[in-house]
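Fold this: Aldehyde dehydrogenase family protein
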Amino acid sequence: MATHQLFIDGQWRDPVEPRLRPVINPANEDVLAQVAVAGAADAEAAISAARRAFDQGDWPWLGVCERATILRRIAEAVEADGEHLARLETLNAGKTLGESQGDVANVVATFRFYAALLEGEGGTTNTYAPAHVISLNQREPVGVCALIAPWNYPLLQLAWKVAPALAAGNTLVVKPSSLTPLTALRLCQLVEQVGLPAGVFNLLTGPGEIGERLAASPEVDLVSLTGGATAGGKVMRAASGNFKRVALELGGKNPNIVFADADFDVALDQALNAVYFNAGQVCSAGSRLLVEAGIHDDFVQALAERVRRIRLGDGLAEATQMGPVISAGQRNQVLGMVEGALAEGARLLAGGRVPQGEGFERGFWLEPTLLGNVHASMGIAREEIFGPVITVERFEGEAEALQLANGTPFGLAAGVWTRDLARAHRAARRLRAGTVWINDYNAAFPQAPWGGYKSSGIGRELSRAGLEEFSELKHLYLNTSPAALNWFGV
């Protein structure tokens, strides 16, 4: 069984206080590896290494083409190791192998996108300046960045942070989730191979308290977290000490709106994919399905029939359509929300139980679940589920659909299904969400920004906006004909 160390200042090392934590396969509860548990002293060492690399090293001031070359090398290394990374992701996170392979492809695309974007970067001339003045806007690295990744997309969402942070010239302290650190550790090994200077990339495995310590450090200039609202609040409070930059992606309660004129079969299929992909453990999951009254009953009946046929199993099995949830605690939380909804009057139309029988004796299994007769006042209609559960609400007309859709504290994503493009455009403008999909769902790629409104977070990942998130904007003013002002009338 593999034992993994911390990576600090270009070296793999044991924590100051030697401790290990087992990493569990959620499909069968087997121990996959033992991983070092970082403590306060290790966090300070990683921060100090990143600080030295930024303040005293050459990395932040390399030319953009040199940094682009490094990013391309990382992309090539990930691509070459793709099958191993995908298998490791499935073992550790429980998702299907096809889902993991898609994640790896997206990681490669993300590093390549930022490499290409870098090569087109340059200062912007301010043409309104006087003739004797050269006025330039230019982007520079923020400094030391703490990057805290979630357990649902351990590799992909880490890459969404690492690629632009490195592209901008920052130095990093990376902290993956303690539940799913294995692909982050492998990425660290691949990054080590491409020749980054010591201290530019540091990795700590350990509990959430390590993330809070990173956020609180006066030597850290930016903290980027993808996680839940509770973790986001802790990080934001900790970061206030030195007013460091904060970027937070905190999940959502995402409406998926199906109007009566939508393509019935396509909307039905996509409604399944919007939630049961990765067992619903997706920040943008369309778990709140809003269906227009005219097709509601037929749509829900067809949906229930399809949900009951979803093949649950180990993610490495070719026939599997949905794997387990990440942990017993997550399963219990989801089941508790389902029970609460039933107590409030929701109807269980499919699933809602722990499956029994061969193959399900061990592991964190939960049947794909469908709840009908859900109303906006119910807790399950307002709170993020983060599991394989669809709730269905009925609406009458466009105005009510939008009122329901916007009626939560979140605003990460939304879907609209209609053949009426004018209606789609009106709805998209009125939905308070960072991404609105029209006649599609859960599509994401590096060129498009990602982030949310309201309680879904602060800032944007991916696209040029993601690069700007990890950079500071500087104004350079050069007077080519300096002249005295005769300040004291001389």
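The radius of gyration is 24 Å. The domain at 3-250+456-476 is CATH 3.40.605.10 (Aldehyde Dehydrogenase; Chain A, domain 1).
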